[in-house]
Amino acid sequence: MSLTSQRRLAAELMKVGKTRVWVDPEDVDRVSSAITREEIRKLIHEGSIKKIPKTSISRGRKRTRRKELLAGRHKGPGSTKGSAGAGKSRWVIRIRSIRRRLRSLRDKRFVTTQTYRKLTLMAKGGTFRSASHLDEYIETHKLARRR
User: Fold this and answer.
1) Which pLDDT belongs to residue 21?
2) Do domains 4-51 and 88-140 have the same CATH topology?
3) Among residues of the chain, what percentage have pLDDT more than 70?
4) 68 — pLDDT class (breaks 50, 70, 90)
5) What is the pLDDT of residue 147?
6) What is the torsional sign of CA 61, 67, 69, 73?
7) Could you confirm whether domain 4-51 is CATH 3.30.360.10?
8) What's the CA gap between 142 and 120, in Å, rounded?
9) CATH code assigned to 88-140
10) Cβ count within 10 A of residue 53
């Protein structure tokens, strides 16, 4: 009482895979006796053969992981991706060059101590992309000390 050919025909008619064909356990005898497409079509219409709904991928694990990540878990050094220059080290290189430029400007007396303090805090906040951007900012806002 194999239903392989019936399953194959039903799958073709319903345009689904063979695994998504459901056969009513009480009508197995009627289904096994059906050999033509017309008979299978009739059984589908009656409800003896049905389409199993598609099962989608559960997002439950994804949600819990996201919650944990927001709480700061799974972020150790083993989870970091990207090049050696990515992340923290890039920031360190940038802020050091900006602070170096600011110190030199203060020591050469291009900017006042008050301006230096203000710009240092701005640099800490991530206002400047680079030392050249800092120079541009000083120029546009006329923060250079008058000669």
Assistant:
1) 97
2) no
3) 97
4) very high
5) 62
6) negative
7) no
8) 16
9) 1.10.1200.60
10) 9
Contact present, 27 and 48 (Cβ < 8 Å): yes
- Spatial separation of the C-alpha atoms in residues 31 and 43, rounded to whole Å: 7
Q: What is the pLDDT of residues 91-110, one digit of tens each?
A: 899 999 999 999 999 999 99
Count CB atoms within 10 A of the CB of residue 21: 23
pTM assigned to the model:
0.45
**Alpha-carbon gap, residue 52 to 95, rounded angstroms:** 60
Q: Are 62 and 88 in contact (CB under 8 A)?
A: no
Q: What's the CA gap between 10 and 8, in Å, rounded?
A: 6
Q: Which DSSP state fits 145?
A: P
Cα 137–143–147 angle (5° rounding)? 130
CA-to-CA distance for 13 and 9, rounded, in angstroms?
6
In the chain, domain spans: 4-51, 88-140
